[in-house]
């Protein structure tokens, strides 16, 4: 199961990068299948600046930002997954985001629930906190 969680984390971040890079077509159907439908109906995210968004407001913000950075890249480092209950997992990792060759780092904690018989993994909550770093990192 931890491999499925890891695969889902990498997939979602790649889909975010593809969206910001405009590597996919800007269509509701594509956005919903890659992002919206993988988030729990009660999903919340806290960004490094401290702002919290529910599923609807977060998805609207991401959708609006389509194609805003053709050089956007995300790298996941130091991924640790912990099983909390049979279908509930906590994942911690560093998410390194590159914008126009500038780096921004953040620590992300994610709760993920494997919900249904189809083994679909649903994102419940994401909390991102900034990490101080030096340019040589």
Map the helices and strands.
Elements: H1 2-20, H2 28-34, E1 39-46, E2 52-54, H3 55-64, E3 73-85, E4 88-99, E5 102-114, E6 121-130
Parallel strand pairs: 1-6
Antiparallel strand pairs: 1-2, 3-4, 4-5, 5-6
Key descriptive features of the protein:
137 residues; alpha+beta; 6-stranded mixed sheet; 6 strands
> Radius of gyration over alpha carbons?
15 Å
Instruction: Give the beta-strand count.
Output: 6
Q: Between the first and last Cα atoms, what is the distance in angstroms?
A: 31 Å
Unreliable stretches: none
Strand content: 35-45%
User: How are the strands of the largest sheet arranged?
Assistant: 2-1-6-5-4-3
Total of DSSP H or I helical runs spanning 4+ residues: 3
What would you call the shape?
globular
Helical residue percent band: 25-40%
Order of helices and strands: HHEEHEEEE
Q: Based on helices, strands and strand pairing, what is the structural class?
A: alpha+beta
Average pLDDT metric: 89
Tell me the major beta sheet.
6 strands, mixed
Short recap of the structure:
The protein has 137 residues and is an alpha+beta fold. Helices cover 26% and strands 43% of the residues.
